[in-house]
Write a structure and sequence with these properties.
- Belongs to the beta-class carbonic anhydrase family.
- One of its GO terms (molecular function) is zinc ion binding.
- Its EC number is 4.2.1.1.
- It is a single chain.
- By secondary structure, the protein is an alpha/beta fold.
- The protein folds into two domains: 144 residues, Beta-carbonic Anhydrase, Chain A (3-Layer(aba) Sandwich); 34 residues, no CATH class.
- The protein is built from eight helices and five strands, in the order H-E-H-E-H-E-H-H-H-H-E-E-H.
- It starts with a helix and ends with a helix.
Length: 190
Amino acid sequence: MSLLSTMIEHNQQFVESKEYEPFITTKFPDKKMVIITCMDARLTELLPRALNLRNGDAKIIKNAGALVSHPFGSIMRSIIVAVYELAAEEVFVIGHYECGMTGLNPKSVLDKARGRGVSQEMINTLQHAGIDLDKFLTGFDYVREAVENSVDVIRNHPLLPNNLPVHGLIINPETGQLDLVMDGYADLER
């Protein structure tokens, strides 16, 4: 049985037995917060438990590295929607130690892409079209700096209010311990 078939079968049983009922909530985050964090599988259950979050408490946006790499990209759009349309009042950027984006090498990624069937011709076409694949596929050296940079992009966004607390934290993916990098309340007092 394929992974998809297994998932569909489980889902049918889940719905039929009404196991979804404990998770019913609204689209508005009860704790009025939006979290940008990494897609790392270790954080799927750990992060909500370490933060005492239940279903419906927060809008959680995940991507590789918890990065807000472009002020007008999809992550930033999601934050703006969460603030204005879904009543989020605070933003938390939560990176983690041992992140796969630390030291990510674009050459390695492109070598693996070629190994999976992406042609060198396609890579050349993208580069010729002005896409800087090296920049696009480069990670970061230090998670703390990555969190600080993402917080700065959010805090300085022209479409967000000046009184929006934007916090930066790093979580340990084994223990769930949080280290504070930037206190959004303190930054508002300056």
